[in-house]
Amino acid sequence: xxxxxxxxxxxxxxxxxxxxxxxxxxxxxxxxxxxxxxxxxxxxxxxxxxxxxxxxxxxxxxxxxxxxxxxxxxxxxxxxxxxxxxxxxxxxxxxxxxxxxxxxxxxxxxxxxxxxxxxxxxxxxxxxxxxxxxxxxxxxxxxxxxxxxxxxxxxxxxxxxxxxxxxxxxxxxxxxxxxxxxxxxxxxxxxxxxxxxxxxxxxxxxxxxxxxxxxxxxxxxxxxxxxxxxxxxxxxxxxxxxxxxxxxxxxxxxxxxxxxxxxxxxxxxxxxxxxxxxxxxxxxxxxxxxxxxxxxxxxxxxx
Length: 303
Ligand SMILES: [Zn+2]
Fold this sequence. Notes:
Elements (H helix, E strand, L loop, with lengths): L4 E8 L24 H15 L4 E4 L1 H6 L1 H9 L3 E4 L12 H19 L5 E2 L12 H8 L4 E2 L20 E4 L2 E3 L4 E4 L2 E4 L4 H5 L2 H14 L5 E4 L16 H8 L2 H14 L1 E3 L1 H6 L28
The structure holds zinc ion (ZN).
The site of zinc ion has 5 residues, from loops.
């Protein structure tokens, strides 16, 4: 086991709130969908308790309003509560004023329900890219101290391939903590979980994280969703082959894989790994972000 604590993060949303399924499920229909987030969160929280892992839970305001008991359980079990926005709209689909209102609302709901100050935010679908860097100003203005919204890879739905791979300050008072990539042959390879964790054999995910921990001596940031541990979730009709592949692939494998991952590494919250300890941070001005032209970033597209 590498002698370094990594940040374990969960995006708390239900299966019907995923961005890739948004074209097939109207927001107005959310109220009518059978919710599975509580039982799936019970699976995750039990697994974390069993293995002694601590995590940061980026929770939707929409979920917190409907499941206040779940939010209080997250806090009572020693985890960090953070914000995933209110209504899970990608920042790329929002005007700055609407985005600011959404993340302020989520922060207020989460603070009301939990009684805790909320310091962290994660954008739906890592939707901060070169085209909407104004989002960092909104996140800071809303009172968050850090964001974990950048995925420095090339992907058809998200990613900022030229962004720094490790924590940096996009503006005064705000720390961005990108999710993890491993650097192989000059390319950023996704190493942070999600669909790649279900797609790739476990030993590949493990060796990518080892590379970050041992090769670069840096803490990694890994993410997972409650619905990824739920093979029995209702199938959403009308989706493309690609979307079905991404969303439903290997759901039955997630739980045993995650259990191995929790045992093979040390896991804690973002607060504990990056905020409560002195960490090396890169100071980057926006102008100095490298533009991806010569293989500086991943060419990998999720299949
Ligand atoms: Zn999400």
